[in-house]
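INFO  loader      accepted 1 record
INFO  loader      residues=275
INFO  predictor   begin
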Amino acid sequence: MSVWFVTGASRGLGRAVVEAAVSAGEQVVAAVRAPDAVTGLASDQVLVVPLDVRDEAQAAAAVEAAVARFGRIDVLVNNAGYGLLGPVEETSDEEARALFDVNFFGLLNVTRQVLPVLRRQGSGRVVNISSVGGFTALPGSGVYAATKFAVEAVTESLAAELAGSGVSAHVVEPGAFRTDFLDGSSIRTTAAEPLTAYEATVHAGQPAFLAASGAQPGDPAKAARAILALAATDEPPLRLQLGADSVRRVEAKLELVGRELDTWRELSLSTAYDD
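INFO  predictor   done
INFO  writer      dumping tokens
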């Protein structure tokens, strides 16, 4: 039996992971911003703790409560976060910093609190929920993608830093899954007056993108079971794509990068000092 610590556990993919772990007989710490608003989650298997990931003291208290209840933490799932739609130029400093505070700095905050527990145990996994947008960015989601690109980078470095410790770090890149991510509880649009310069590349496509809420191809229950499989695998990948759309976009990005690398190789290699 393993102990899972899941942030953003009240709904969406986080809730699906909690439910999958419980079904598998695991013990779970469900970290949510408003425990009073969550019903039907607490049980002998599930400890519900309050956690705004931006709050260092609250994160420390949540980890302490987890260890006091279950004695250990085996898998940290950093899932808490939200989306932001809008052109880069229209994104205010306040909007960008608020997004990074949750999606990136909040993840770092929780990870710093959990890692000492995992290292003392000499075992455990850190699973950071990114997005296919953390590997390949689309117009209209540049700042959101930047937060997820940052998650990917810190996970890659952390995985190397933890080598030999018994603790590992991984990143999951979901495509479009049928959660509430596209409704107002999880995604926001920039507040600035839309610029006509971005009508064709960004604004014209936003209504159709948001209208896809409830019709996304991905099944969150299956995504959650895939995450459980990742955690149980002896040699899990650094990155795991979830959904055919994620796989397609990652393959297209790899192809583009490979093609550009080959095309510009001579110029790239021409910059060293002459011997």
